[in-house]
Write a structure and sequence with these properties.
By secondary structure, the chain is an alpha+beta fold. It is built from 8 helices and 4 strands, in the order E-H-E-H-H-H-H-H-H-E-E-H.
Length: 201
């Protein structure tokens, strides 16, 4: 099935939904690499800010996992962890699984995330994941294609080093290294006001 442009749906699956008038004014797209220390630092620093955004009802967050660290350091840990996270997402447990990845992330030159026993242990720590379903998904590489597509799209877009954050499809002004939770909150609030003003008849 060739989905229409901008159609949405489950990661790696069909995309049957066509959003006509989004009810959430601001979408943050966050690119992270499971093996990247910079991604880990960003995820942990902004966890509270992102939780507040989601609770506000004004922001949705789309995560894109990429694997450029595998090319940088060798191995396949980022790809394995990203595919496992996608398997966790099948059960609505992406965020708790990635929280465990960040908590137990090895040094980047250590390709430990390729170990499927470790990924299985992280899924258990994340909780509320049907283990048999998760392991079947991982063992059959059911989300590997999704991960490869995510990385190829990221590379083709020339977005640079992770983490990368976009607001409603536009890159943030400056690098994430210069960003603070306060600055991001201000940018999100400004975007929400712009969208609300544009929607007025």
């Amino acid at each position: 099935m060739n989905a229409p442009e901008h159609a949405v749906g489950p990661a790696g699956g069909t995309k049957p939904d066509l959003p006509v008038r989004p009810t959430v004014p601001v979408t943050l797209t966050v690119y992270e690499d499971p093996r990247s220390p910079q991604s880990r630092a960003f995820a942990q620093r902004y966890a509270t800010t992102f939780a507040r955004f989601l609770a506000s009802g004004q922001v949705q967050i789309n995560y894109r996992l990429v694997t450029q660290s595998d090319k940088k350091y060798g191995g396949s840990g980022a790809q394995e962890a990203a595919a496992a996270a996608a398997c966790a997402q099948d059960q609505g447990r992406f965020a708790p699984f990635m929280d465990q990845v960040w908590r137990h992330q090895p040094a980047p030159a250590n390709d430990a995330l390729k170990d499927r026993k470790l990924l299985s242990d992280l899924a258990k720590k994340a909780g509320k994941i049907n283990h048999d379903t998760f392991e079947l998904c991982v063992d059959r590489n059911q989300r590997k294609g999704w991960v490869e597509k995510s990385q190829s799209d990221f590379a083709a877009a020339g977005l640079g080093e992770v983490p990368v954050v976009q607001i409603n499809g536009r890159p943030l002004p400056g690098s994430t290294a210069q960003l603070t939770p306060g600055k991001l909150t201000s940018l999100v609030n400004t975007e929400a006001r712009h969208v609300a003003a544009a929607a007025k008849p």
